[in-house]
């Protein structure tokens, strides 16, 4: 934050002639002569200096307030830029919401799992969390594989399914994936540390700005071929999903801290209201 120094009116002194000293020998006090304004500094000049000082102080306060407001606005908005649909698709552009729930086919073309989630650790590769479906959808068994080991297949430019060079038996032999972060014995204990992010859980969360205002909702996350998040699609405005506007920002421009009140982004409500809404017909 910029600091501003407001200059006060310079100190001044009125020169007063010396008082006559009493005659010590006679014991009688001498009468002091009447003080006169200094020839070098008149009362008119004093008034003028005071007026100029007050005006200068007022100008400094006004300029300081304007610059402070600009500094606060800069700190709030930062370097965040809104993105286009072309940006979303530039690095793979696959929608995590479309990826989650898609079928995974095995080596022989058989269905072996579905994508349950995509987990992004603080370090290392993104992991696709696969579900075997369980019995009638109850208590599915989860396993984790590197997202980059999945090969996406498209139909009419839309994601249709993934292929994994494995069999259902291969997945059954892997240790089950557990979300509990305090399970130190689980193979995924490091993966699900507090710094890991579940894209399934992140989607739908309310997004706040630096002022603490809830200004949007995470609608989707766009990932690259390795599963790493690149862009975040935000929804703002509207009512009951009607008239909602969609904008996008870089994933790295959004702060995601688990258990810290949800994600935040350096944007103002006015910026979102002024932005053009993205047309998502090309979403994959």
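Sequence proposed for the structure above (284 residues):
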């Amino acid at each position: 934050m910029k600091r501003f120094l407001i200059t006060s009116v310079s100190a001044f002194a009125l020169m007063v002639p010396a008082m006559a000293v009493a005659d010590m020998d006679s014991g009688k006090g001498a009468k002091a002569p009447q003080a006169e304004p200094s020839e070098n500094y008149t009362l008119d000049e004093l008034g003028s200096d005071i007026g100029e000082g007050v005006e200068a102080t007022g100008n400094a306060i006004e300029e300081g307030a304007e610059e402070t407001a600009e500094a606060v606005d800069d700190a709030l908005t930062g370097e965040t830029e809104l993105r286009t649909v072309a940006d979303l698709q530039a690095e793979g552009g696959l929608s995590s919401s479309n990826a989650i729930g898609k079928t995974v086919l095995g080596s022989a073309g058989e269905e072996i799992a579905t994508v349950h989630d995509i987990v992004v650790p603080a370090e290392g590769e993104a992991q696709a969390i696969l579900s075997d479906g369980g019995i009638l959808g109850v208590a599915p068994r989860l396993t984790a594989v590197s997202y980059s080991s999945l090969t996406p297949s498209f139909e009419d430019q839309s994601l249709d399914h993934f292929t994994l060079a494995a069999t259902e038996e291969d997945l059954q032999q892997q240790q089950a994936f557990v979300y509990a972060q305090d399970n130190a014995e689980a193979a995924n204990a490091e993966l699900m540390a507090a710094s890991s992010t579940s894209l399934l859980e992140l989607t739908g969360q309310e997004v706040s700005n630096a002022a603490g205002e809830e200004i949007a909702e995470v609608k989707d996350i766009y990932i690259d071929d390795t599963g790493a998040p690149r862009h975040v699609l935000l929804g703002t405005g509207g009512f009951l999903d009607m008239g909602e506007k969609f904008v996008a920002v870089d994933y790295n421009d959004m702060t995601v801290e688990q258990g810290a009140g949800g994600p935040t982004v350096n944007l103002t409500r006015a910026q979102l209201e002024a932005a053009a809404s993205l047309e998502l017909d090309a979403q994959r």
